[in-house]
Amino acid sequence: MDSPAPLQTLRPKSAQTQPGSEAGTDILGNASSPVYSHGQSGSTDNSKNLGEPVVVIQGLSKSYSLPGRDDKVTALHSIDMSEGSEFGPVRRGEFIMIRGPSGGGKTTLLNLIGTIDLPTTGTVELMGESITAKSPDKYLSNLRLSTIGFVFQTFNLIATMSAFENVELPMTLLGKLSEKERKSRAKTLLKLVGLRDRANHLPSELSGGEQQRVTIARSLANNPQLLLLDEPTGDLDTLNTVEIMDLLLKINQEAKTTMVMVTHNPDIECYADRILYVEDGRFQKQVYNTVQSQLYYEEYIQYLAAQAS
Q: Where is this region: Disordered (predicted)?
């Protein structure tokens, strides 16, 4: 298994919070509330003021049948993230990263949390709603659309739609906002991700980093309580990786959006509150950061060069 990154070697800078875009609103245009306070260096646990449980998992297992094989392959074994368990639930405002070797169960776990897949045994509870193997598709589809945002390594933008239209689409599908409200929110979100001047461009006219920014804006369209990210920086260069992670941290800290992110990159662990290590379908350990941090890009480049020499 990959070992934790030498965060002190990378010399991360402490994250800075910014005021909301307007008085009384956060950076997503929602009614604002105070930003988090952070624990002091040296404390055992991150003392960021987290809220109620958003994701509670009990006895979660997932097995697959493969062609040509009589036995089943078990991808996850009795995962538990509940009150009183060693690993504990995902709480409102928490930024969790899931790491571990390929094939260890990271993406399977993320898909089960996001109701993209269903458990073989056990339950996933999202914002108080219990998900089991018998949960109906329509119920799960509505739950995903209204409460969960997704960001993947592949951007999955609709090629024939502009950046603005891609961001507006989830709001249209949910049907809770008027056309005027949808357009206003899409404009706010594109401004947040730094693409106000690229709103009318098609995905093919945007760089990889810009496309991922559109994807992040789209994932926030319906003001989800939970953002799930599967290798969101996997196809990006170093500069775009740092910029995307800075953006995610800003959203997490200022809008209190809960995030669960799968990554292979140990160097960005400093952005998380908690890192869970998964191998062979089981949690192996967890590590807490006392304070979320960002990377200095120039020093990070020097660090990478030194590692390569």
A: 1-50
